[in-house]
Amino acid sequence: MRKSLIAGAVAAVAFATAAPALAANPAGTASAGSADFAKADQTFQVEPLAVCNVNPDAAGTVTGSSPAVTTTGLKIGETSSTCTTQVVNPDEFLTKTKSVARGTGFELSALTAARGPRLKISEWTITCDADDKGTQAGWELKGMSGWSGLPQQIPAGYVHDVKASNGTVLAKVKFTDTVFPEPNDGSLSMTLLRITFEPASGYTGTITVGSAACSPTP
Fold first, then answer.
1. pLDDT per residue over 134-155, tens digit each?
2. CA nearest 100: which of 54, 169, 153, 41?
3. Which one-letter DSSP state was computed for residue 182?
4. How far apart are CA 115 and CA 84, in angstroms?
5. Residue 79 and residue 103 in contact, taking contact as beta carbons nearer than 8 Å
6. Closest CA to 195 of 179, 217, 175, 167
């Protein structure tokens, strides 16, 4: 199954009394992904890729980047991120932030040994935008193949079973895993895609593709 583009967005609104000085999520951060999985006595790790963090005290952009990485059963192309603070009203000290991570060339081949699919994503983007009123996360996935049975429109928090040719579930994939703090402070965090291996795959652990978090600005 090949999909050209899937996209969506979620939002969190701060209380009218304004967000607390110390939000449950950071001012703004983004990463293209990471991995920590194992098979038998072998462990495979990819540290968070292309990480950036907003500087809430100064206007400007902080960037992050990572070269392509390859480990057993997994390839990820070049990744990048930008975390920007913009002053929208200097007289009232109002700012807004935007945290973005982008990645290319994701290919998970680890499941093919168990007669599972080769999962590919050509490009992905995740964003977290914040102002004094609240936050919003957006995402895009492009050029997906191997994702048999995935719906045309992916609802928030959708869990997809990755199956072998005989129907055995090899991994579970949660799309747009979004966390809103309780009590609500207007902040949010999102993981675009989280792959968790099931025992039948022969692997344990997880792989994430794209994450971002942000909090309402002062």
1. 899 999 999 999 999 888 888 8
2. 54
3. S
4. 44
5. yes
6. 175
Nearest to 70 by CA among 87, 86, 46: 46
Using DSSP's 3-state secondary structure scheme, residue 200 falls into helix
Place of tokens 């964003």: 127
pLDDT tens-digit map of 162-210: 999 999 999 999 999 998 888 888 899 999 999 999 999 999 999 999 9
> Exposed, middle or buried: residue 165 (CB in 10 Å: 0-12, 13-18, 19+)?
exposed
For the four alpha carbons of 201, 202, 206 and 209, in that order, the dihedral sign comes to: negative
The rounded distance, in Å, linking the Cα atoms of 89 and 136 is 20
Burial zone of 204 (CB within 10 Å; 0-12 exposed, 13-18 middle, 19+ buried): middle
CA distance 114 to 165: 9
pTM, rounded to two decimals: 0.89
Residue 153 CB neighbour total at 10 angstroms: 9
Sign of CA dihedral 69, 114, 141, 10: negative
